[in-house]
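G., before I forget:
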Amino acid sequence: MTLHSIPAPERKYRVAGHPDLRVAILDVGLACCALEVGAAITAGLLVPEGSVDTGPATSEVSVLLISGTVTDALAPAVIRAWGALAEPRLAVSFGACANTGGPYWDAPTVTKGIDQLIPISVYIPGCPPRPEALIAGLARLASTDGPCQSERGDESP
Amino acid sequence: MIPGEAHGTIALSASACTSCMICVRECPTWCIELDSHTEQVSEPGARRPKTVNVLDAFRIDFGLCMYCGICVDLCPFDALAWSPEHDLASTTAAGLVHGIEELESTWPSADCAAEAGTPGGDGSPSDS
Amino acid sequence: MTSHGRTDVSPADWLEAMAGLRSEGFVLFDFLTAVDRGATLEVVARIVNPVTRVTAMVWTTLPADAAELASLSDYYLGATWCEREAAEMFGVTFIGLADTRPLLLRASLGKPPMRKSAPLVARAIRDWPGAAQATDDGRQGGNPSRRRQLPPGVPEVFLHDDVNGDVASAELASGDQR
Ligand code: SF4
Ligand code: SF4
Ligand code: SF4
């Protein structure tokens, strides 16, 4: 399997209800949770920058959004995507699979939490989380100072 | 925007919980933990004191929970309910583990519960 | 689609039976997988006659501890993919299979994970929260609810210490591979 190419460049969005905030999202959509990101866009909760007339944003964050099941085979690609994201960057773990392995917590091939590999700033629970939960999580991101290393993050290589 | 029957999170009514452990044992992701102890309660008129379980701690790890609803369906005492509350993001993995206080704070309002046709509203934790 | 039904053959006749069906027009390979029955491992292949739209399921039974079978890849190129999968998931050795690279798993995973004897490491190394009992206030005596509880769906053998020992070292080994 060749996973050497990095996914599409991040896209910029405005976050509904948070007019000052602009997020540049690199979405690593690996399973069902990824659909909720599309749902957030369709529902107008994530508004592609430039698609409507928006005022100036006062804060912009570069976000690696890990939505879906990370397998041990795919984990190196997630790490590469994180490495490819320009600083300042923050990572969001979206859904039970990315948070802990979720429904696949007992599977031998699934990474038990992406925070073992990269520092996560915001964890969004759900299977899948609602699009509104994504928005709430992104809003939380704007108020964090930076990635906080979780206890589990200490195991990262 | 979020319908009342939305499966946002799982809420607990600690006063309704009998510490029977059914939800803990049936949860497929092993994400519920419960501590309890037994106490002897003497009721007036009863010949012998009754042994009751007293709930000490109830934790759901929402990092692990797969929102299958098995715990809600199986609880014989309607102590668990779906709640439309969804803003549960945390900046730490440990912050996704919710104890009794957090689990009670999301108990659905009577309106939500009526829409969802599930327990809630009546017997809300605040009534206890 | 109509079905040709189930055909059971001995492992020695596997290749011949499949070749025979192929010459009868069952030229389309659909899938191949295995079923763990404990002491034995069954392998099943499903093939289709695209003209008559008849399907055939061919089964064979192998000893679980010596699961070897002739590869169908000379007759059905498409079987290669399924055989690679059955090899890594169920530990079947396909004799004559040219491409034995692991398909989906890391090569170092250890026991084929679809074998029932492969422990679910995560469940074996974690304490089951359902084992907790209410601590009592010093009262002695039998409480019928205090029989030993086991997690549903986890074979008791997974919870034995010897398995846990195995598992812990397997976990360490696979952790090194990361
Ligand atoms: S958390 Fe649930 S919805 Fe999301 S990817 Fe995993 S299984 Fe799918
Ligand atoms: S919804 Fe399912 S996974 Fe979540 S606590 Fe209840 S039983 Fe466990
Ligand atoms: S099943 Fe209901 S009553 Fe029993 S421990 Fe769980 S929440 Fe409490």
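Chain C has four helices and six strands. Chain C touches chain A through twelve residues (CB under 8 Å).

More on Monday.
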